[in-house]
Sequence to fold (736 residues):
Amino acid sequence: MKARLFLFPMIFMLLLVCFTAIDVSSATAESASSLSGEIPIGAVWSMTGAAAVYGSTQKNASELAVEQINQSGMLGAAKIKLITEDDRSTKEGAITAFDKLIKEYKVVAILGPTLSNSAKAADPIAQAAKVPVLAVSNTAAGIVEMGDFIFRDSLPEMLVQPNTIKETKNKLGYKKVAILYGNDDVFTKGGYDAFKKALNDQGIQILATETFNKNDSDFSAQLTKIKGLKPDAIIVSALAEEAAGIMSQGRQLGIPESVPFIGGNGFNSPKLAQLAGPAAEGAITGAAWLISNDTPGNKAFVEAYNKKYGANPDQFAAQAYTGVYILANAIKTAGSSNPTAIRDAMAKIRDMDTVLGKFSFDARREPVHPPVVQIIKNGKFVLYK
Amino acid sequence: MSELPQQLINGLWQGAALALFAMGYTLVFGVLDIINLAQGATFMWGAFFAFICVTKLNWPIWYAIPVAMVGAGFLAVLLDRLAFKPLRSLTSGGLVLWGGFILLLVGMVGRWAFPVKTGITIAGAAVMLAGFVIDYRSIRPLRIREVPHLAPIISSIGATFILVSLAINEFGAQVSRFPANLFPVKPYHITADAVISPIQTLVLILSLALMLVLSLLINRTQMGRAIRAIAWSERTSRLLGINVDYVIAQTFFISGALAGAAGVLLGLAFNRLEPTMGGEVELAGLTVIIVGGMGSIGGAAMAAFLVGMIRVLSVAYIDSSFRDAFVFALLILVLLIRPSGIFGRSKAVRA
Fold:
């Protein structure tokens, strides 16, 4: 008797499960109808050379995102196949990589390249071939202006820097600053332009503007000059390697700790504190993302990254991770792996939930999401308050 | 103007390190009339030898500096045997040496499992050693000829590529660093505003000491006399019974050791080691030896300080973007006005 009592509810439940399952599978089939097989996506990172610090985390993060997307069945029967190329931090390397990805691997979209300098050289190739490019770390001016297939999810320096200057000026009340920047690189030069504009807009006096070259190791002459002018703060637009050298040599020359180093996007790497050690304490930088951000999926992302690679992700990792999700989202919405269809779908992305916050592309394919200001305390980036 | 003392200190200690590098450079030129463009690569390897000692073997830095100098010295001797000596006089030993070297490269770069890779590498090293000995003992070379000036320059550029590639293969292309706490960071105050850090003091003192040792070595010892004799005329020295090959090896050893010392010291001072770090100092060194007068050791030392000062003073009082422009303007000026260099003399007087 007891068995019979259980039988009816069980049959009922089984039927219920069956129907729901059918319902779900038919829905997925519909939205990703023409998607199947492997969708090749290219990624061009600087895994060796001056920008290797950024490239390696980008590679890790993008691979993590692809793995998650493929496991979740977000694209139905289709899977993303990520083809990663190293551009050796050079323009030539980026051009070769783009050529290879487009002609040999027939990728439907490209992530990268790491450096703005390389992007300016390589992106026109993709534009000509009508393959969408999503830059995840190019922050210089004039990236998306290269064509309607070029996007970026990295906030340009022009948007981040005014915010950094405004917040730090309010709290530190500085009036005169000195600037030190690398003048032979589009990225660091772009950072300098953005800072200069922001400083002028806020009425802050620039005491001196000093320059250096990529791969310089000695900054003592410039820093001595800056020290003699007694600025309230020192603005640095440099990649992490050089920035670390600048900060250690500056403190060694006796620039007091009350004079903070304020940097651009190049500061945004945990490597900075690692390389400069105690000299990095108190360094301030604007950023698009912070590890302690309370954005959708951020905690899970940090945990997954940490579990897989045994280290915390940085902003570049977060942006690369977001980049893969943006592409996957565009592919899903387009329901096709046609590059032009992906481009059109990507241009329409508004208020997408990402680890960077609510993410939209504006009409010029520039990213829109809230920036943060951070400071190095005890060797780690924390929110600047 | 209050920054002037500090700028002079900046120029001084960097000039001292540059002087070390340039003296070795000019020494080889004085003796053999060749420009060894692989000096920059030797400099880089000197820094990495110390890096291996400190990070892999956990030796204190006080051992690592002499080890790096000796290592770089032997590297320079090897370089002579591989890249320059075969051009002067080719021996069967030289061919064996080259064979061993190629085997060694294949062993180091190839991607085989453990015993094969190590075996080939060791075999290569053994063949090289044999070649070295045969080369050294050989009396009648297969071929002797006057070298055109360009040939050694080209072969030293080739050697640079090989050495840089090996370093990239070994340490990666990114920047390597010494552990952070090798030296105290608290700087010494010279005046209220001017400071010098302990490591910079070490660079300055060690460089000056090595300069003194080199000058004594060249001017006061039998070996120095032999080196000067060969610089004047190799043929005459041979007739006088000087073992020319041995003295040339000594010259290369000294030159390499100086480059190695400069490499470790600058590597420590900036705490930044990378396979391409020799490029910049190479160029600066070339300027220094031309300004100082090719082959003049004292001239190279003086010119190194001059170039060091011009570099910092042009940043301090003119514009940092034009730093290198001023250095090269000096070079062109010297070439126009005094082609033999500020401190240079003609070859006969020099000896």
In short: The longest strand of chain B covers residues 89-90. Residues 4-91+141-176+196-350 of chain B form a domain with the ABC transporter involved in vitamin B12 uptake, BtuC fold (CATH 1.10.3470).
